[in-house]
Write a structure and sequence with these properties.
Blueprint: E1 2-7, E2 37-42, E3 45-49, H1 55-61, E4 69-71, H2 77-80, H3 87-93, E5 97-101, H4 103-112, E6 128-132, E7 138-140, E8 143-152, E9 155-162, E10 165-168, H5 176-182, E11 187-191, H6 204-214, E12 218-222, H7 231-237, E13 242-244, E14 250-252
Parallel strand pairs: 3-4, 4-5, 5-6, 10-11, 11-12, 12-13
Antiparallel strand pairs: 1-2, 1-14, 2-3, 7-8, 8-9, 9-10
The protein binds zinc ion (3 copies).
The site of one zinc ion has 7 residues, from helix 2.
């Protein structure tokens, strides 16, 4: 199993438009963060979790030639705005893109991308095929995926566990029941927005507390804001098994 961090930034990305802070002005490529998304290659399948506004750029940067399915964690624009760009894969494979999402997320996509679902379809628009998921485990081919229910302020969203790898973004509350589903993961990726507390995301401190509780072998912090600080500085403050993820980081499991 191979995991590629396609994007590790919060909703505005880093640098933020018109921001002069030292993170946004940094020359370190690890301080350039596209909107959060990961690609998982397993059993000859390529799955992408979330397709935000930078989806096209991420596919180009990683030279991705095939995506078998897109899984959505939730409907926020920084996770869904790139859906139109599945057209390239539609043309390549001459088939719709499989999209796994909860009912509420599907409703939102149908509103936001109404033209995709119009009765009279304009030629060349994206083709997608919905698969409805909830918090129950499901399979894509022979890959078992365990959804993890997360609270993103008041919005119930999903994280995903595939084997030893668990991806949890955009959350500030995980119940004890859901923690049981995460327990035993050797690799955990968790949102760590910034050092100060936030309404809908774990702060770095809260993320570290969660990691300490779950005790994975390796943990990755993602969905980072420019307010978190420079990669080189923040990484030095972290425990040895915790890595500040960056765009393009590849983890082989
Ligand atoms: Zn987000
Ligand atoms: Zn900035
Ligand atoms: Zn969100």
């Amino acid at each position: 199993m191979k995991v590629t961090f396609l994007g590790t930034g919060t909703s505005q990305g880093v640098p933020v438009i018109a921001c002069n802070c030292r993170v946004c002005q940094s020359d370190d490529s690890r301080d350039k963060r596209l909107r959060s998304s990961i690609m998982i290659e397993i059993n000859n399948k390529t799955l992408v979790i979330d397709a935000g506004p930078d989806f096209r750029q991420q596919m180009l940067r990683e030279k991705v030639k095939n995506v078998d399915a897109i899984l959505f964690t939730h409907e926020h624009k920084d996770h869904t705005a790139g859906l139109d760009d599945v057209r390239a894969f539609n043309h390549l494979k001459q088939m719709p893109m499989d999209v796994y999402a909860e009912e509420r997320v599907q409703q939102s996509l149908m509103r936001e991308f109404a033209y995709i679902f119009a009765e009279k379809k304009y030629p060349g628009i994206p083709q997608i095929k919905f698969f409805t998921i909830n918090s129950e485990p499901f399979r894509i081919d022979n890959i078992e995926i365990i959804p993890i229910r997360l609270m993103h302020y008041q919005l119930p969203i999903l994280g995903f566990r595939i084997g030893d790898f668990t991806y949890l973004t955009d959350t500030n509350f995980i119940s004890e029941t859901e923690k049981k589903k995460i327990a035993g993961s050797k690799y955990i990726t968790i949102t760590g927005l910034r050092k100060e507390k936030h309404l809908s995301h774990f702060s770095l401190g809260e993320a570290l507390q969660f990691i300490d509780e779950m005790k994975p072998e390796h943990a990755f912090i993602t969905h980072c804001s420019h307010q978190l600080g420079l990669h080189a500085e923040v990484q030095k403050e972290l425990p040895l098994n915790v890595y500040l993820a960056y765009d393009g980081l590849v983890v082989e499991l």
